[in-house]
Amino acid sequence: MLLSPILTGASGMVGRAVLLECLDHPDVEKVLMINRHPVEVRHPKLRELILADFSDLECASERLQDYNACFFCAGVSSAGKGEEEYTRLTYDLVTSFAQALHDRQPDLVFTYVSGMGTDPHGRQMWARVKGRTENKLLHMGFRDAYMFRLGMLLPERDLPMKTAWISVMYRLLKPLFPLLRRFSWATTDRKLGRAMIRVAREPQPKKILESADINRLGADGD
């Protein structure tokens, strides 16, 4: 089965990692990336849709046809945000987008990148909000849905990093990447992309995936 995913978050590190793997993968026919602002990536497989409001898909219904997966990789940091604001930018935004998409294309495989430690009953605010988001998505009624609880992402390609401190941290850690790859909580950009493509094409019994699961599912080609 050829895959045609909708993808969000292409301007960030995680979304770009998945996008580049999709563009390289022979089983991906086309990709529709949905962004608030244009992303400077060009490829014959790639289409772009600019939406200021992710929940407003009414004007784009025709462009959403013929896609069979959604890779939701957009997200914001909880740093400096209270629970109300973070809930609005995470739970409300993601679930409203997913519901609007489901209303038009329910026969999709929906994948969502949350994070290691996500827990709807956890002590940390971000973990609770993302846990609630996961639960809502899993029960929304898509053909299938998977939650990617990503730990540390080790880039093998040149990926955008939106904040200066993250860029500095990765430069300092780069010599340690071969060592860090041995830990179960770390994965690479290529494995993440391959794992998303795989779950969209091959149904998996486990719906909440930790980094070890991502590494297993994305190991092809290593």
TrEMBL record:
<feature type="domain" description="NAD-dependent epimerase/dehydratase">
    <location>
        <begin position="7"/>
        <end position="111"/>
    </location>
</feature>
<dbReference type="GO" id="GO:0016020">
    <property type="term" value="C:membrane"/>
</dbReference>
<protein>
    <submittedName>
        <fullName>Epimerase</fullName>
    </submittedName>
</protein>
<dbReference type="InterPro" id="IPR001509">
    <property type="entry name" value="Epimerase_deHydtase"/>
</dbReference>
<dbReference type="Pfam" id="PF01370">
    <property type="entry name" value="Epimerase"/>
</dbReference>
<dbReference type="InterPro" id="IPR036291">
    <property type="entry name" value="NAD(P)-bd_dom_sf"/>
</dbReference>
